[in-house]
Structure formats: C-alpha cells, structure tokens
Amino acid sequence: MSPAIALAFLPLVVTLLVRYRHYFRLLVRTVLLRSLRDCLSGLQIEERAFSYVLTHALPGDPGHILTTLDHWSSHCEYLSHMGPVKGQIVMRLVEEKAPACVLELGTYCGYSTLLIAQVLPPGSRLLTVERDPRTAAVAEKLIRLAGFDERTVELIVGSSEEVIPRLRAQHQLSRAELVLLAHRPRYYLRDLQLLEAHALLPAGATVLADHVLFPGAPRFLQYAKGCGRYRCRLHHTGLLDFPAIKDGIAQLTYAGPG
C-alpha cells in the first residue's frame, strides 16, 4: 500500500478508535493483558484474585471479601465480575422475593454467589453451577472463606446442559423460586427452556439474566417477551469500570406453563 493511500485511510482509523475507544480498552484489559499475565504467572486471573483476597480480606465477612474483589478489579486486574451496581440490583431482588431456593448458572469466581448468599433468608439454599473445574475450585475456596457451608451454598461442577436435568434427582431441587443466569449469554435460552421442561420453575419464579445487552442475548429476550409466559423488565446499567458500554440485567417473572 502506498503512503498516499495509507494517509487517506488515517482519518477513518482515528474516527473508529475514538468512537470505539471503550471497547478497545476493554479488549486490551480482558484479552491482551490477561493472557500475558496468565503466561507470566502460570495462574488464571481468578487464582490471582483469590491470592489477593487471602492477604487483604477478612475471613467470614462476605461483604469485605466482595469489596476486596472490587478493589482488586479496579486497581490491579480487570476481573469481569458482576460488580457493586448490578450487585445491588440482585441483592435487592433476593431480599424482596425471599426465595427458599436459588439456582445460579455461572459461578465464575464466586462474586455473585456471595452477593446472593449473604441476603438469603435463614434456612434457604443456593445451588450454583460452574462448568470449569479450575475456576470452580477458586469459587469453592472463596465461598468457604466467607463462612458459608455446603448446607447453605452447594457448588456443582459441570455444564448447565448436563446439570439441569439431574437437579431434582441428585441435588434435591424440586423448584427454584429465583434463578440467576450469569454464564454465557448464548446458552440462556437453551437453559431457560430446560428449566421449563423439567418443571423447575414454579409460577411466580424470578429469572435474572446478566449481560443481556453486552455481549447480548437477543434470542433469549425475544423468547421471553414473545412466548407469553413471562413478564419482562430490563434494569439498565453500564459495564463495570466501562460505564459508556451499555449493559443490563433482565428480570423475568414466570407466569406458569400456560
């Protein structure tokens, strides 16, 4: 390419970089820098975060552990976790609904698990599912460090597609009054339909789905709005540490099989 042609494209490149600078920064922090640190340390980001928590957080204090994770993500390495803004929405809804049993799909590092567990009514259960064994091991340690035993929080390792059909038989989950979808948005619709097919959603159940705007779950939202079995509400937020990138949590209320 000649210098004259390259120069002609320069304004377009500059315009794109300025317009999408937030996405570019996100790419650098979540992919490039993270991959480099993984190689240099031999540890995954979740393992590095847990090491920080061990030396800076108070054991048995879930609130302090969550604050420590937020601080580490903002000042050390971007963790891509739920964060305090979305966390307040989730905690408020858990307190409002007071569910006897909560199902979380996508434990990740355990951040949202602790958010939910600390506001559960006495005697309630939280079942959380994580497909990656190495990430699940970190989440397990974080959950126990916060002071929650297996009677309150049970972590199940496996893919949601395999776990959901055996929840009733193997984990004594007859129904979940509140479900949090926080794994991969492209699986939200499949897993919602699995929950329906196995009669795990009672009438009035609340289904919360994170990241429905970024990276987005359009087929899931289209189904929830169009099937006639859900009342839908969208809680608009920005992406953690990138408020210019619009995201949101979908809140569905299940009316029953119809």
Automatic annotation (TrEMBL):
EC number: 2.1.1.6
PROSITE patterns according to UniProt: SAM_OMT_I
UniProt key word Nuclease: no
UniProtKB keywords: Catecholamine metabolism, Endoplasmic reticulum, Hearing, Methyltransferase, Neurotransmitter degradation, S-adenosyl-L-methionine, Transferase
Matches recorded under InterPro entries: SAM-dependent_MTases_sf, SAM_O-MeTrfase
EC main group: transferase
Main location: endoplasmic reticulum
UniProt superkingdom: Eukaryota
Protein's cellular compartments: Endoplasmic reticulum
GO CC annotation terms, alphabetical: apical part of cell; endoplasmic reticulum
GO biological process, one term: positive regulation of protein import
Catalytic activity: a catechol + S-adenosyl-L-methionine = a guaiacol + S-adenosyl-L-homocysteine + H(+)
A molecular function (GO) term: catechol O-methyltransferase activity
UniProt keyword Disulfide bond, yes or no: no
Protein family membership: Belongs to the class I-like SAM-binding methyltransferase superfamily. Cation-dependent O-methyltransferase family.
Reported function: Catalyzes the O-methylation, and thereby the inactivation, of catecholamine neurotransmitters and catechol hormones. Required for auditory function. Component of the cochlear hair cell's mechanotransduction (MET) machinery. Involved in the assembly of the asymmetric tip-link MET complex. Required for transportation of TMC1 and TMC2 proteins into the mechanically sensitive stereocilia of the hair cells. The function in MET is independent of the enzymatic activity.
Entry protein name: catechol O-methyltransferase
Encoding gene per record: TOMT
